[in-house]
Amino acid sequence: MVIIKNGHVVDPSTGIDGVMDIVIKNGKIEKVIPQGESSFGIGIDEEIDAQGLYVMPGFIDLHVHLREPGLTYKEDIETGALAAAKGGVTTICAMPNTKPVVDSPEILQYVKDTAKKKAVVHVEQLSAMTKGQDGKEIVDVKAMLEAGAIAFSEDGKSVMDINVFREALEEIGKAGGVVMSHCEDKNLVGKGVLNKGVASEKFNVPGISNSVEDIICARDIFMANEANVKLHLCHCSTKGSVYLMRMAKSMGFDVTAEVCPHHFTLTDADIQEEDTDFKMNPPLRTEEDVKALIEGLRDGTMDVISTDHAPHSKDDKSKGFMEAPFGIVGLETSAAITYTALVATGLLTISQMVEKMSTNPAKVIGIENERGTLREGARADIAIFDPSCEWEVNPDEFLSKGKNTPYKGKVLKGKVVCTIADGHVVYREI
Predict the structure, then answer these.
(1) pLDDT tens-digit map of 87-145
(2) Is 301 helix (H, G, I), strand (E, B) or coil?
(3) What does the alpha-carbon distance between residue 16 and residue 29 come to, in Å, rounded to a whole number?
(4) Three-state DSSP class for 36?
C-alpha cells in the first residue's frame, strides 16, 4: 500500500480540486479522502508527503516517436519510457513511422513485447493507415485492432491519394477505430523547411505556408465526418486549424485536436541563428498563430496538449536547415513549459492543464475509465508536480537519447518531482 498525503489533488474527471490523501493498493486507486480524515495503520509500504505539491492523473501523450524498431540510435522504447516518467507521462502513444513501419500485427506485437519488458510506463502503439506508409494499400484494419493498435495514423505525412484515404477512413470507421491525422499537403509543401515568412526569408530557405496545413485539415475534417470515423488532428500550428476546429465542433463533428508546447510558446521570429533544434514539422509559426492556438486551448476548441516528441542524434541535427531532419524532444519539458507559459501566467487554470494533458487524451483513445483519472478503481497512474520549483533546461540531463530542444538554457517554473505508474514509483526527486 502506498499513501500520498497532504497533496493538492487536481482531477477534472471527478471534480476534485483540493488537499486530499490518496491510498494506492494493488496498483489501483483505493480511495481519495479529505486530508487527515483517516488513519492508515499497518500495511503501508511507502508514504509520500506531497504538501505544497499538485497531485494529478499521470499525463497521457498522444504523440510520441520512440524510434523502435529500426532507429534506436535516436531513441528506443526503454529510454523513451524513462524520459516520459521524468516528465510525468504515464502513457505514451507511439507513432508508427519506424523502420520497418508498424503496419502488421507482428511488428506491433514486437513493440508490445519490448515495452512489457523494458518500459517503466504504459506504451500504446498506433498502426499506419497504409502499408509501408506508401499511401497506396490500406493495412488490415481489423487485424491491427485485434493486435492492440490504439489508433491509426500516417504521421510524418498525409495519405495524399484522396480515394485511398476515403477507403481507409471508411474501413477504420466501420471497425470503430480512431484516426490521427498529420495535416500536410505534400504537393504544396515542396522543399519547405521553415515557416514561410521572417524565418524562411532570413535564412534564405524554402518556406512552409499555413495553407499546407489548413487545406488537409479541412479535407480530413469533412471526409472523416462523412465516413463516420473519430478524427484527431495532430500538432496543429495555424490559426486556420483553430478556426476549422471551431467550425467542425459547431457542426457536431466527432473531431478533437492537439497543440504542442513549442507551437504555443515559440514563433519563427525566435529563430535567431541556424539552430536546427528550431526545425520541426509543422514549423514554428507567427505570433498571430500562437495567440489563436492559446485561445483555442482556453475556450476548449483545442482539446489536448501533446509533445510530438521526435528525438534525433546530434550528427543528424548538425546538417543545417536544408538537410537536418524535422523534430524536437518534449517528454521531459512539456508539463513545465505548459505550466510556465499558460498556468503561471493565468491563461489556463491548473485544472485545465490536467484536462488537456490527462483527462481529454484518455477520452480520445477510449481509456478514460482506467487512465487519465484518479477515480477509485482506476490504475494508479499519478504525476506529482512542484509549482514553485524553478529550473534551467539542460539537455545533458535528459533521460531521452535525444537532446534536440530549442529550450536549452531556458528557466522554467514547475517540475514533475514524482511519477507513479500502476502503483509503482518510476521517477522520484522527493
Answers:
(1) 999 999 999 999 999 999 999 999 999 999 999 999 999 999 999 999 999 999 999 99
(2) coil
(3) 14
(4) coil
Q: What is the pTM of this model?
A: 0.97
- Nearest Cα residue to 172 out of 247, 216, 242, 232: 232
Q: 380-394 burial string, b = 16+ CB within 10 Å, else e?
A: bbbbbbbbebeeebe
Q: Domain 2-54+379-428: give its CATH superfamily.
A: Urease, subunit C, domain 1 (2.30.40.10)
- CATH code, 58-364: 3.20.20.140
Domain ranges of the chain: 2-54+379-428, 58-364
Helix (H) or strand (E) holding 47: strand 46-49
Residue 103, burial from CB neighbour count under 10 angstroms (0-12, 13-18, 19+): buried
The one-letter amino acid at 7: G
Q: Which of these is catalytic: 308, 381, 386, 422?
A: 308
- Read off the pLDDT of residues 276-288 as tens digits, 9 standing for 90 and up: 999 999 999 999 9
Strands (E), 107-260: 122-125, 152-153, 178-181, 194-195, 207-208, 230-233, 255-259
**161 is annotated as an active-site residue:** no
